[in-house]
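Inverse folding, one chain.
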């Protein structure tokens, strides 16, 4: 699959993992962890030019389901594209150092697959910690390889939640931070939303609405006009009440919070 398709899969699997108890739901939590890592590995292999990112779905090593113009899927022998697991198929070319580290991390995860999912070995908190650490290593390598540092949808949600928790510690005297925090959280919420919908790439995050081209702004407004308008309205509060000392900062911060609530409600719909 294409790199962006792998990134979307990772975000969906990360969302699923967050709903599961790592020990109580270990089998599905582990499987989501392993699949997210495999998608990260495939995206990294494609980016490194070691495998093809053709639009085909791995069945067995060397055999892929290829979509046809009529919508049917045809089993086809293809050059190496997405891998199923480490070594399936084996990549014959030398792996760069970062890809070697990712492969090692995936081997660590897969060490627990059969014993803990199929053979009755009870997972422990250490098992969970080791697998999660290995996945985070894979995701970190992917982020740095693709564009220095990128944010996946799950990352944006995590940042937004943390910022919103921090906003809860602010008082009415902190209206500057409340407005800035609302802007940052809203932008993260919208970026996560757009990534989940598949309408923006991880490397094309919105920073400010006013930095978008006219055509891009119009395109994103067609996707979610209410959220885009709300973010723009928060940004418009900043000159007078954050950079300046115009009266009414407390009320402006309250308005920013209500606009953030609109964004949070709208963007949560793509998580369902």
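Residues assigned per position:
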């Amino acid at each position: 699959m294409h790199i962006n398709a792998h990134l979307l899969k990772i975000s969906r699997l990360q969302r699923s993992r967050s709903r599961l108890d790592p020990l109580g739901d270990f089998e599905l939590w582990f499987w989501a962890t392993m699949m997210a890592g495999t998608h990260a590995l495939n995206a990294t292999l494609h980016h490194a030019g070691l495998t093809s990112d053709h639009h085909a779905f791995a069945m067995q090593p060397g055999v892929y389901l290829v979509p046809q113009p009529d919508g049917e899927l045809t089993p086809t022998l293809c050059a190496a594209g997405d891998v199923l697991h480490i070594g399936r198929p084996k990549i014959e070319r030398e792996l760069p150092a970062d890809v070697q580290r990712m492969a090692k991390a995936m081997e660590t995860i897969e060490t627990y697959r059969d014993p803990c999912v199929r053979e009755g070995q009870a997972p422990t908190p250490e098992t969970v910690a080791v697998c999660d650490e290995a996945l985070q290593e894979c995701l970190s390598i992917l982020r740095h390889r693709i564009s220095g540092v990128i944010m996946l949808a799950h990352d944006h949600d995590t940042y937004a939640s943390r910022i919103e928790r921090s906003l809860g510690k602010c008082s009415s005297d902190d209206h500057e931070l409340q407005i800035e925090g609302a802007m940052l959280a809203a932008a993260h919420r919208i970026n996560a939303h757009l990534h989940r919908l598949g309408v923006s790439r991880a490397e094309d995050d919105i920073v400010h609405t006013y930095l978008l081209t006219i055509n891009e702004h119009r395109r994103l407004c067609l996707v979610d006009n209410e959220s885009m308008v709300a973010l723009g309205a928060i940004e418009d509060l900043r000159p007078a009440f954050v950079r300046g000392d115009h009266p009414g900062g407390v009320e402006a911060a309250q308005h920013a919070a209500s606009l953030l609530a609109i964004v949070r409600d709208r963007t949560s719909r793509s998580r369902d």
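DSSP finds nine helices and three strands in the chain. Residues 214-243 form the longest helix (30 residues).
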